[in-house]
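Morning. Coffee machine broken again, so started the prediction first thing and wrote up yesterday's gels while waiting. Chain of 67 residues, entered below exactly as on the submission form.
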Amino acid sequence: MQSFVRRKNIEHFTKQLAGGLLDEAQRLYAEKMLAGELANERACALATAHRADAIPSPVDEGTAAPR
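Came back before lunch.
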């Protein structure tokens, strides 16, 4: 659920910035929020990849099916 909200936030802030209708304060806020959402997305992706690497596969444990 959090990843869905994060993607929607990224989409929203990107559209706002692309529209060019923001004043300076709004633009700075949108840039700050977009950067935060992108950083969170990267952190979650790295954590997920790290967890996947930490789980040994059956082949790694020597329990592969015999040929």
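The first helix runs from residue 2 to 19. Going to sketch it on the whiteboard this afternoon.
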